[in-house]
Amino acid sequence: MLYLPTMRVIAENDYQRIHEASLKILSEVGVKFDSVDALDIFKKHGARIENKTVFISPQMVEQAMKAAPEKFKWAARNDEQSVILGEGYVVEPNVGCVYAQSIDRGRWPGTREDYANIQKLHQSSKLPTVVGATPIQISDAGANEKHLYMLYETLKHTDKPVIGICETKAHVQENLKMMEIAMGESRFAENTCIAVSVNPLSPLAYGSETADSMVQYAMKGQAVMSLPCIMAGVTGPISIFGTIILQNTEILAALVLTQLINPGNAFIMCPCSSTAYMKRGNYVTGAPEMMLIDIAGLQMSHEFYKLPSRLMTGMTDSKEVDVQAGYETMQNLVMGILARPNILHECHGVLESIMTLSYEKFIIDEELISRVLRITEGVDTSDKAMSLDLIKEIGSEGIYFTHDETFKHYKDLWEPTVSDWHTYTEWKETDEDILVRANRMWKQRLANAPEKMIDDGLEKDLEDYIKSIRS
Predict the structure, then answer these.
(1) The whole model's pTM is what?
(2) In total, how many domains does the chain have?
(3) What's the CATH code of the domain at 79?
(4) For residues 449 and 124, is the Cβ–Cβ distance under 8 A?
(5) Which of 5, 35, 202, 259 fits as disulfide partner to 211, beta carbons 3.0 to 4.6 Å?
(6) 171-213, pLDDT tens digit by residue?
């Protein structure tokens, strides 16, 4: 028997209350969609629309709930790297960082090289990962080129499942075409190969890029992830429960749109809201209330709507890799991962409320994630695990350290990858700070990364397609 620890923050009898409140808001207040295509879809299916506000009926929500899958295969270019989303954990790149940071260079605007570096680090990660997204913005490319270069670097340096980029309608279509080239037309058409992450303009609105991205992805049968980033007290109610309800409502609006376009389309619930720092009105990620809001959303996803989920789990508001970064990150990782999301998000090196990506923290966070994942495995309480025969054999005179049973299972114990567990004397011989050690490790991994993970033919096809758009 295995005991698995789990984090929960609301009771089951709250689920129906949250759902019914969301239905009331959807039908009576509505959600604004700043997209001609999205409005046309709602109109075609009989929704009442006033200006750009769509009033979504309970019947539409019910149909969407029935249509969306509880789990789905997320196909990778290398099928051995494909995952079944809705089973276990997947680790995802960050989304939104503007700056890169390291102990030897300081802080600088992200570049295309940084973007490629992060993809290489995710490819070499021992954690089960997906790749792509926008772990860091690139400052050395124009607005009409960034989306092309980011997906190109992802496809060139990885073979894992891909997350795309929320962009304009035309840019999204270009990225989807690149995925079709990389995966092959028939495989792309028959599988979920890429997902897009979209943020509502809280409260109760979807902007043109987010709505158009959802439409284009669903039309191609690709996954959509809706993640409200509400700030309680600024873009949502100061009440934690009120923000939970608003967040749920915004996610349901996106769910309905995707299922009207393509019933059965893969959809991922992504509660990502927090509180504001009320002295400044800015977004914070280290507040305990953040996980209370979002774990409630996770419970709704798994237990009420039966949908896959994603949760931000490794954030901090610290500006450097210090003690604050450590305790805020671990708070969010423990609470978040024990709530058992399917995708662990914003957990690979983020600092400064997801503004900065630290190369050293990327390495440290991998160990922190593995620590918490070990905790989720729980305790084996079977009769065999009681070890009664062994305890009788050893008694008070024997030693466990050299026993065959210890040699047989000692590798089952968790061990650190970057933390130092040596004695003080052994540690003092190297006198190596953990940040220095992490710096050396990320540089070694990049040095060992292959030059590319696509053949010359596919590389040329992708480059030719990008040239055709730029010309």
Answers:
(1) 0.95
(2) 2
(3) 3.20.20.480
(4) yes
(5) 35
(6) 999 999 999 999 999 999 999 999 999 999 999 999 999 999 9
